[in-house]
Automatic annotation (TrEMBL):
It holds the Pfam family BMT. The lineage of its organism: Eukaryota, Fungi, Dikarya, Ascomycota, Saccharomycotina. It is found in: Membrane. Keywords: Cell wall biogenesis/degradation, Glycoprotein, Glycosyltransferase, Membrane, Signal-anchor, Transferase, Transmembrane, Transmembrane helix. This is Uncharacterized protein. The chain crosses the membrane at residues 21-40. Residues 90-101 have a biased composition (Polar residues). It is a single-pass type II membrane protein. One of its GO terms (biological process) is cell wall organization. Residues 71-110 are annotated as: Disordered. One of its GO terms (cellular component) is membrane. One of its GO terms (molecular function) is mannosyltransferase activity. Belongs to the BMT family.
Length: 651
């Protein structure tokens, strides 16, 4: 037993070893107390994230919009989208199917307008570029088009489409823009009753005829939960193009236009947002918000380059894509415009801030070998999600399909505009109609097929590496055929699947002409669908969204992710289209992915080394050749069913 005096001495004069242990224990206890205190404080004090101020700003902008909606009549006017009559179901036969599906709260764009409408089967065939073939033979020379034909016999792999839904525009804000910029004075060049010295504030430009809006391209903005649309607004008196602008609008999940709403600029600093919000709270002057937000609808105020050309001024064929591979996701608009006596491709970023008093900056796209005076258009943009992430504060790169016949791909910097060639080799597929124009051109952007779907198809081919360098995209291209029997010019959409295996791009699937069951209005007489009344033009503009579920169980087997059976998915796609360069419509499709996957029952996703090399060019060339022939034949058949009937004779 230890005596009390000894115990006191031990406590007052511990050995060095004991002293060290006591100090360490005390420090540990202090650290634990501080940690607990900090955790307790976190329970009662809010943690501010970088997005909080932006969320607060979005809430303010939404309240401002709701306050300005006005009367019930104005609210009704905002709901302007209407269904168009597709008349006879020319190319898609079958009984319309009506579903009743609740909207998806996680994906608001899957609204009742999309889910609970009638869908009709699409009767369309395609041509395949990945079918197994004797390696000793040539895919282009030794294959026949009927051998490459794909038409799904599985009812669950047949695409379906809704009726087209018209998206009109009353040109709100156009007068203000033309007066503010002075572009309204250009009317004096074409109107004798319009004086060059006229007071622009007294002119109602929207009352003049011959305004045309088409090429409407749209993307979904996940943070703002709206569809952002960029379309071409053309003024062409007596069919002579004079001015062209990029029109900006936003739509809700049911495709009703939202007027008077503001969207926050993606690059607005938090300090500026706080300052603008504070200024507006005190003044209630909306101009205080101009530095951090953009109001819709409106005109994209870019430089029209008046020195380059007297007629036509302005951008053409806008395409809008969503860049979600950079540090700051944002929409990108690609368009063509006059430059140095030719026509060049440009980029602009509609949700980036514009310096006060200046035009919206644009970025010219060019390669080192591209000289002045070239005529560029119909570039097809897309992103590769397998590319490395760009450095901080950099936008990264965007790919463009420069041409499909032959398949040429560029990679362009979104920061400098410089492009370099990724793939250019290949021979052009011959024109099946000799010297009569028959070509395949760009249409929509290309949308990546989700990685989990690609990995599932790779596993079916025995590839277990989740990072295997193979990527797939979906898009819609168009054929332009002259003098095929229906007007002078004939345009139709075609579904396309492009694949990149290692460093080689190819076309695995290209469909025949698609009309979605529409009798297309004639170019010269919009009340007519007859080929006798001018060009017959149906253009694909953009894939507004493509929603794909996870794999659903196969009814014929136990659910197995490693199954060799081709998987099924539920998917919905929104495609914007234009008829006769006259309007903008949206159409909804189902089973697009199932249709695509069904094609791989007849082929393989992973090609051998020989095919990935030189032979892949022959495969793509053959597919293009078959589609050109089929499109010409489609036009001939369509013209026979759309001729004006002879006048009735009276005995």
């Amino acid at each position: 037993m230890v005596k009390s005096g000894t115990m006191v001495a031990w406590l007052l004069h511990p050995s060095p070893r004991i002293r060290k242990s006591i100090i360490i224990s005390a420090l540990v206890i202090i650290a634990l107390v501080l940690s607990a205190t900090q955790m307790l404080n976190r329970s009662f004090e809010p943690v501010y994230h970088p997005l909080d101020i932006k969320d607060e700003a979005r809430s303010l902008l939404e309240k401002l919009y709701q306050a300005h909606r006005g009367s019930d009549a104005e609210m009704k006017d905002a709901d302007t989208a209407t269904d168009t009559d597709t008349n006879a179901n020319v190319n898609g036969k079958g009984t319309p199917q009506t579903t009743s599906v609740p909207p998806d709260p996680e994906n608001p764009y899957l609204s009742n307008t999309v889910l609970n409408v009638q869908y009709r089967p699409i009767d369309v065939q395609g041509f395949l570029g990945m079918m197994p073939f004797d390696p000793k033979k040539n895919y282009y020379k030794d294959q026949f088009c009927p051998d490459l034909l794909y038409k799904s016999s599985d009812s669950k792999r047949i695409m379906e489409n809704s009726k087209a839904r018209l998206l009109p525009d009353d040109l709100e804000g156009l007068n203000e823009y033309l007066r503010k910029t002075g572009y309204g004075s250009l009317f004096s060049r074409k109107h004798n009753d319009f004086s060059p010295d006229a007071d622009l504030s007294e002119v109602d430009f929207t009352s003049y005829p011959d305004w045309f809006r088409f090429t409407g391209s749209s993307v979904w903005l996940p943070d703002e939960k709206v569809h952002l649309m960029a379309s071409r607004l053309l003024y062409a008196p007596a069919k002579y193009p004079l001015m062209s602008f990029i029109r900006l609008q936003i739509f809700d999940a049911d495709w009703n236009e939202i007027k008077g709403r503001r969207l926050l600029y993606v690059d607005a600093p938090e300090h500026d947002i706080k300052e603008a919000m504070g200024n507006y709270t005190r003044s209630h002057n909306e101009e205080d918000l101009d530095s951090v937000s953009i109001k819709f609808p409106g005109i994209l105020d870019i430089d029209l380059d008046e020195e380059s050309r007297e007629f036509l001024l302005g951008p053409e064929d806008p395409r809008i894509v969503y860049n979600d591979v950079s540090g700051i996701p944002e929409p990108v608009i690609i368009f063509n415009q006059d430059a140095n006596g030719g026509r060049a491709m440009y980029l602009t970023f509609p949700l980036e801030r514009t310096p006060r008093g200046m035009k919206k900056p644009t970025l010219k796209l060019r390669t080192a070998l591209m000289g002045d005076g070239t005529y560029e258009k119909n570039w097809t943009p897309f992103f590769d999600t397998l590319d490395p992430k760009p450095e901080a504060n950099m936008r990264g790169s965007m790919y463009v399909m420069y041409d499909i016949n032959p398949l040429r791909v560029y990679k362009c910097s979104l920061d400098s505009g410089e492009c370099f060639i990724v793939q250019q080799e290949g021979a052009k597929a011959p024109n099946p109609r000799g010297d009569k124009l028959t070509s395949i051109r760009g249409g929509t952007s290309l949308i990546p097929i989700p990685r989990y779907v690609v990995q599932r198809l790779l596993r079916r081919d025995g590839i277990l590496d989740s990072d295997y360098p193979l990527q797939m995209w979906l898009g819609f291209v168009k054929t332009h055929i002259n003098d095929c029997g229906c007007g002078h010019m004939f345009y139709r959409p075609h579904l396309m699947v492009m694949v990149k295996q290692e460093h080689s791009f190819r076309v695995d699937l290209l469909s025949d002409s698609m009309d979605f069951g529409k009798d297309v209005m004639s170019f010269d007489d919009h009340s007519s669908v007859y080929c006798d009344d001018g060009n017959n033009v149906l253009n694909p503009n953009e894939i507004a969204f493509w929603d794909i579920s996870y794999e659903r169980p196969n009814e014929d087997s136990v659910f197995d992710l490693e199954s060799k059976l081709l998987p099924y998915y539920d998917d919905y796609l929104a495609l914007t289209i234009s008829e006769a360069d006259e309007n903008v419509q949206v159409i909804f499709l189902k089973n697009v992915l199932n249709y695509i996957i069904g094609a791989y029952k007849h082929g393989t996703l992973v090609l051998g080394k020989k095919d990935v090399g030189r032979e892949v060019r022959e495969r793509t060339k053959k597919v293009e050749s078959c589609v050109l022939k089929a499109a010409s034949r489609y036009c001939e058949i369509y013209s026979l069913t759309h001729k004006r009937p002879p006048p009735e004779t009276i005995d």
